[in-house]
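Please think about what follows:
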Amino acid sequence: MSVKKCLTIAGSDCSGGAGIQADLKTFAAHGCYGASVITSIVSENTEGVLSTYNVPVNEVANQLDAVFEDIQIDAVKLGVLPTVDIIKIVAEKLMKYLPKYIVCDPVLMASSGDALTSEETIDAYIEHIFPLVTLITPNIPEAGAFTGMSISTINDMKGAAAAMYSLGASAVMVKGGHLEEGHATDVLYDGKDASSIRVVKVDSPNTHGTGCTLSSAIAANLANGFALGGAVFSAKDYVTEAISKSYPVGKGHGPVNHFFEYWKDMRKHYEKAEK
């Protein structure tokens, strides 16, 4: 049996809802083996971020070598890259080992609004990361930070996606989030076409880690042989279901349910055991 291997290079969320914890759960839910390289230790929960500790650059480099020198990685997901030096070493190692697919979720702040990177990292992303990625998935504030554009409509999102493409990214997915009432619309641009991906918004407070989950689901789908468009659409459906099947955790915005399909089967198993 051939199992695809995915690597997340991201921050650690000790509460388990976002970051590498969400990525590894997502990889597993898609039938992939997951490995991780931690760039930042984020002390956060469902209510916000208490503190961050950036992993020393040499340890990030050692983690990358340890994984790539032993495991054939089929797809990489990039999350929090908190400093210019970490961005540079990640780019250097990616150019050395050349994984086939790289999906970048340029996490500039947590869903709570707390900043996770510094302003100077934006130029470093554009110079070192954009040319390497298969797809980059900024939300509206992040797309605005990269392009300097004000984004308030779907057409603005399309313009921002095209602008980021012109900065060197192979494909761009701008996430609409709360732009529309009752719907969640993303824009996917591959240099030729701008496709709108529109789904009914799930009314749930449990949205912690949705961006991490979406990008890691896209990476897993690419590893599993999906074309880019199919990988994105399937990942969007997965996240929507994971939100709708979520359950309360913590006092704030709880996590999505990464294993909703597995739990459905397990409930059947427990029901049989109880009879």
